[in-house]
Amino acid sequence: MSSERATPGQWLPGDVTPVDLERLLWGLVALSLIADIVTTFVGLNLGLAESNPAARGAIESHGVVGMLGLKAFAVGVALACRPLLERAYRPIVPAGLAVPWLAAAVVNMYTISTVLSSSH
């Protein structure tokens, strides 16, 4: 079996194009970014600590503005690198932002829930 002639569009279900997928993933970037920021600051207000050293430094020196700046920088780098890829492969750019931010938000929610359940 060979995938030499396969294109990313062949991997997508139905009528979903790489452009549609990329649009959907940029929406997921926005949601995961908000979820990560909100859950981070809820956790910090409960006495938890930020484990990411870059985020911790940004938050300690500039608060929520520092966190927003850090996220804006990441999105800016992603947008600057996006044109370097063929159109069919561009959905990897927002996926590369959304997946770790979504994972961080899930870990944050789990950690917050354990703190809240142990306080009752």
UniProtKB/TrEMBL annotation:
<dbReference type="Pfam" id="PF18902">
    <property type="entry name" value="DUF5658"/>
</dbReference>
<dbReference type="InterPro" id="IPR043717">
    <property type="entry name" value="DUF5658"/>
</dbReference>
<feature type="domain" description="DUF5658">
    <location>
        <begin position="29"/>
        <end position="112"/>
    </location>
</feature>
<protein>
    <recommendedName>
        <fullName>DUF5658 domain-containing protein</fullName>
    </recommendedName>
</protein>
<feature type="transmembrane region" description="Helical">
    <location>
        <begin position="64"/>
        <end position="85"/>
    </location>
</feature>
<keyword id="KW-0812">Transmembrane</keyword>
<feature type="transmembrane region" description="Helical">
    <location>
        <begin position="92"/>
        <end position="112"/>
    </location>
</feature>
<feature type="transmembrane region" description="Helical">
    <location>
        <begin position="24"/>
        <end position="44"/>
    </location>
</feature>
<keyword id="KW-1133">Transmembrane helix</keyword>
<keyword id="KW-0472">Membrane</keyword>
